[in-house]
Design a protein that fits this description.
It is built from 4 helices and no strands. It has helices spanning 23-42, 45-57, 72-95, 100-103. Helix 1 (23-42) packs across helix 3 and helix 2 (45-57) runs antiparallel to helix 3 (72-95). The chain is flat. The protein starts with 22 loop residues before the first helix and ends in a 9-residue tail after the last helix.
């Protein structure tokens, strides 16, 4: 059995992956699955609502104006969330490039 390194954000190789396959092939397979999932979310209004919430929670579109009381750890954590959100946005752009404008459209935002 091949040595499989898993982290919280990775998944074990699929059963149909032949033994001895490089990690690059596993990474490509994972990217394809994630791209498919992002595309599915982009195809539905509720999926786009979830993506908007997630991008907002990651502070993708917020400017940060740290004050003197803001510690470095808080800034690093916020930037880490932003990097994750930008990775998600890039994934969405590759999955459904024509729907990105719809994702960011104010007409589709829920009116609370």
């Amino acid at each position: 059995m091949p040595d499989v390194h898993t982290t919280p954000l990775s998944c074990p190789p699929l059963d149909e992956t032949p033994a001895g396959t490089s990690r690059t092939a596993e990474a490509e397979a994972l990217r394809a699955v994630l791209k498919h999932c992002a595309g599915d979310l982009m195809d539905s209004p509720t999926g786009r609502t979830f993506l908007r919430w997630l991008l907002s929670a990651c502070h993708c579109f917020d400017a940060c104006d740290p004050g003197p009381a803001t510690c470095t750890a808080q800034l690093h954590a916020r930037e880490g969330r932003r990097v994750l959100g930008l990775h998600l946005l890039r994934l969405v752009q590759t999955a459904r490039p024509r729907r990105v404008a719809q994702l960011l459209s104010p007409e589709e935002l829920p009116h609370v």
